[in-house]
Amino acid sequence: MSFENIANQIWLFIEKYDGVVISYIAHFCFAIVIFLIGRTIARFVARQLRRILTNRHVDPTVVKFVSSLSYYAIIVMTLVAVLGQLGVQTASIVAVIGAAGLAVGLALQGSLSNFAAGVILIIFRPFKVGETVVINNQKGDIDSIQIFSTTIVTPTNEVVVIPNSQVVSANIINYTRLPERRLDLVVNVGYNSDIQQVYQVLRAAVNKTDNILTNKAPTIRLDLLDASSMNFNVLVWTLNANYGSVKAALLENIKNGLTENGINIPYPTMDVNLNSQS
């Protein structure tokens, strides 16, 4: 076959299939562009999430996991779009991914609920590392916020690990989020005590105690006439850091003041009547 015949055959092939070839080339180029754009977006989102979570002082393990999860999720969606651009039927692929996701979700239902709860804790931040909280009747300092659980160190140096799903569903008491805290004391005195004298003793004890905030006036009031005592409320404000020392000092000053002024603190009593029969 001569060179001229070969050239004619090539030309005829190009004339017959040039539209198809150009279409495939165009789709392939668009697929590459889609992949590059998707990968750029995935890197940008992962980097921004890593920066935001790091600035919020989130646990490094959570930061790495969340950023990696977002990156690969966007990459998977990008690959599906690339395959669709190349003419591959993606409906079946999406169905397979959905079925696999459902199966994994059912198998890891508890773990996924803990993970979702961990994401909620990261977003809404009801507490952070170092704060003192009560969760599920467990009081202690937050040691770490992991992907699936939260760790608390109790005042007796016990480590308590609570699943995040239980943390989210529980009532959370955060003692240290606000800088100031009110100290509430109940002082019981006998009914033979003079009320005005008791007020004077309690005010003197408050004024004698250091680190009580003066910008919020203390409250001293008769709150309850109990079965065997009159109950007075003593409400003062202090900084969170001084709460324990102020409580101890105020209790000591109140006890000393009551003793010096002859005001008794009644003990629970019970009257027992014996009937003698002849």
TrEMBL record:
Residue ranges constituting the Mechanosensitive ion channel transmembrane helices 2/3 domain according to the UniProt record: 69-109
Per the record, membrane topology reads: Multi-pass membrane protein
Q: Which InterPro entries match?
A: LSM_dom_sf, MS_channel_1st, MS_channel_C, MSC_TM_helix, MscS_archaea/bacteria_type, MscS_beta-dom_sf, MscS_channel_2nd, MscS_channel_C_sf
Under Gene3D superfamilies, the record lists: 1.10.287.1260, 2.30.30.60, 3.30.70.100
Key words of the record: Cell inner membrane, Cell membrane, Ion channel, Ion transport, Membrane, Transmembrane, Transmembrane helix, Transport
Segments spanning the bilayer are 20-42, 62-87, 93-124
- Gene Ontology cellular component list: plasma membrane
Give the highest taxon in the source lineage: Bacteria
Q: Where in the cell is it found?
A: Cell inner membrane; Cell membrane
Subunit structure, interactors included: Homoheptamer.
What's its job? Mechanosensitive channel that participates in the regulation of osmotic pressure changes within the cell, opening in response to stretch forces in the membrane lipid bilayer, without the need for other proteins. Contributes to normal resistance to hypoosmotic shock. Forms an ion channel of 1.0 nanosiemens conductance with a slight preference for anions.
Query: What is the protein's given name?
Result: Small-conductance mechanosensitive channel
Organism from which the protein derives: Gilliamella apicola
The taxonomy runs: Bacteria, Pseudomonadati, Pseudomonadota, Gammaproteobacteria, Orbales
